[in-house]
Amino acid sequence: MQYKRILLKLSGEALMGNRQYGIDPDRLQEYAQDIKQLIDKGVEIAIVIGGGNIFRGVAGASRGMDRVQGDHMGMLATVINGLALQSALEDEGVPTRLQSAIKINEVAEPFIRRRALRHLEKGRVVIFGGGTGNPYFTTDSAAVLRAIEIKADVILKGTRVDGIYTSDPEKDSTATKFDFISFEDVLKKGLKVMDTTAFTLSQENHLPIVVFDMNTRGNLMKVVSGENIGTRVN
């Protein structure tokens, strides 16, 4: 395995499958099975999930809702997704801990870095919910922050597309894919990988990012094994 400890970033929308909103149990089961394959190989896995399938704070703010209130609702949505993924993983026999940046002690542990590291060392999957615990920060920022804190080897950003393109491949048929690209070139070309705060934090801490299609079965294993899947930013 090329990577020993990974931070897997999933969007909330990824959990919808073909639905318009909410959580698709079949998609959840597929993800859990793919993650279990890595655990069986001894890879240490932490996960951050967005909440866009349930509520998006920015969208609420654009309709006149208070942004701080909206972001807190989004944080709770990520905890709901975390609980769902935890349940799916445990159904596959994978020991899992959900840690939240906001205190919800009845359903999740508080985020404590040393405890998270201990869970990883013992072969448990750790899901980080509640974003950073602060409004105005995205789950991309939470993913990079947690990856740095747990000393992950890489951030794996699972999306619907198979990497980073010159433009949106869903809208532009002439878009071409990058296999490798530097942080500097992403910024120069104005490509959208993560929000600027998260991306800059990753760049400053020399933390590589791999963007890949999580919805193709087996891709997660291929990325962690070092195969040239998706786009690597370093």
Description of the molecule:
There is one protein chain. The chain is an alpha/beta fold and 234 residues long. It has a single domain, classed as 3-Layer(aba) Sandwich (Carbamate kinase), CATH 3.40.1160. The chain contains eight helices and eleven strands. The chain has helices spanning 25-40, 57-62, 67-91, 113-121, 139-149, 183-189, 196-204, 219-224; strands at 5-10, 44-49, 96-100, 109-110, 125-129, 154-159, 164-165, 177-178, 180-181, 209-213, 231-233. The strands form two sheets. A nine-stranded mixed sheet has the order 4-3-5-2-1-6-10-11-9, sandwiched between helices. Strands 7-8 form a two-stranded antiparallel ribbon. Helix 1 links the parallel strand 1 and strand 2. Helix 1 packs across helix 3. It is globular and about 50 Å long.
Element layout with pairings:
Layout: E1 5-10, H1 25-40, E2 44-49, H2 57-62, H3 67-91, E3 96-100, E4 109-110, H4 113-121, E5 125-129, H5 139-149, E6 154-159, E7 164-165, E8 177-178, E9 180-181, H6 183-189, H7 196-204, E10 209-213, H8 219-224, E11 231-233
Parallel strand pairs: 1-2, 1-6, 2-5, 3-4, 3-5, 6-10, 9-11
Antiparallel strand pairs: 7-8, 10-11
Helix pairs in contact: 1-3, 5-7
Percent of residues in helices comes to 25-40%
Q: Strand arrangement, largest sheet?
A: 4-3-5-2-1-6-10-11-9
DSSP summary, beta strand count:
11
Helix-strand pattern: EHEHHEEHEHEEEEHHEHE
Shape: globular
- Which architecture does the CATH hierarchy give at level 2? 3-Layer(aba) Sandwich
Number of helices: 8
What composes the largest sheet? 9 strands, mixed
In CATH's first tier, which class applies? Alpha Beta
Mean pLDDT: 94
Assess the beta-strand content as a share of residues.
15-25%
The end-to-end span amounts to: 19 Å
Derived from helix and strand composition plus strand pairing, the structural class reads alpha/beta
Q: Can you tell me the CATH topology?
A: Carbamate kinase
Low-confidence stretches: none
Total separate domains: 1
In the CATH hierarchy, what is the superfamily?
Answer: Acetylglutamate kinase-like
Query: What is the CA-atom radius of gyration, in angstroms?
Result: 17 Å
